[in-house]
């Protein structure tokens, strides 16, 4: 399918141990930030758990007394101090992007979110034009809190709308009422945010074509400059998966999801949005999410928070998942890293192809080996790659190719 709902996985992969002090191999420090440098901050708190959620998030009941939301900003700043020590004499030239995700970051106060951003600036320095995003649930922000976030230096807000219809929101166990997301988008623009994203999920059981058309119409009318739309993925262990196993709800249909994607492309394209990644559309180039583009084009980033992933100089690592374990390690001066892996050239190439092919910019054909170029030729013949771009030496997906993006990737890899 063209796009799936993605975030921090509930189960972390295996890998080699991270040194107690978090030290990186010397080779990883030689080119920090040459392809851009970002900071991701994971806020693991949620007021309630959505039925589809398999992310590394916790409600107050799930945390018990094991972690304090009030002390969380200080804990993140402790990891930031460790990050400064690890990079030492090899700091990035600047921080190009910051993305605060979750969870529901706006359950933290604007003051705490501002302190975290200020800590990043004092540690490495924010670029003058840095993009600074926070995710938010629509019910977790107010006009006053949005003004405070803008004053603290945040430049972009990403709101979890998911749907405009009450029935779909109920199936997803979303807490905000229908219409609240677009209201919050307007409040964000009034607070001075030029860049506002609305997230949609499509393919929810029980969602009709009319339901999704309503969601698209409301997104367009909201005046935002960015839209993300992801096909619902049902993860084991979620409430939604349990309801499907019991037969209360049908499983999502790939055919329906493809129809929804085509509907999104038609509605958003007619409203002046252009796709720049399979699941993301922006009204202008300035509205594209630069932090995600850094991920997709091989930049470096440090991930702060429990379960957060980082990538510096070809080394990828991930933190322990639980907020209590995360805080405990930092309290004694130890890295919260759980494990890491050094990407081989073959693994780095595979990821580069997987990610760049999803972009409207595509990837140069000369980065492929002979088998990959043969696969690209077959994809061109099948109508999955743009012939004009192909003639210019690039592999760029057609609309049909976007629907079959995963299959095209497989054709281009050994």
From TrEMBL:
Keywords: 4Fe-4S, Chaperone, Cytoplasm, Heme, Iron, Iron-sulfur, Metal-binding, S-adenosyl-L-methionine. Pfam families: Radical_SAM. PANTHER family: COPROPORPHYRINIGEN III OXIDASE, RADICAL S-ADENOSYL METHIONINE DOMAIN-CONTAINING PROTEIN 1, MITOCHONDRIAL. Probably acts as a heme chaperone, transferring heme to an unknown acceptor. Binds one molecule of heme per monomer, possibly covalently. Binds 1 [4Fe-4S] cluster. The cluster is coordinated with 3 cysteines and an exchangeable S-adenosyl-L-methionine. Belongs to the anaerobic coproporphyrinogen-III oxidase family. HemW subfamily. Residues 31-274 form the Radical SAM core domain. This is Heme chaperone HemW. CDD domains: Radical_SAM. It is found in: Cytoplasm. It comes from Micromonospora echinofusca.
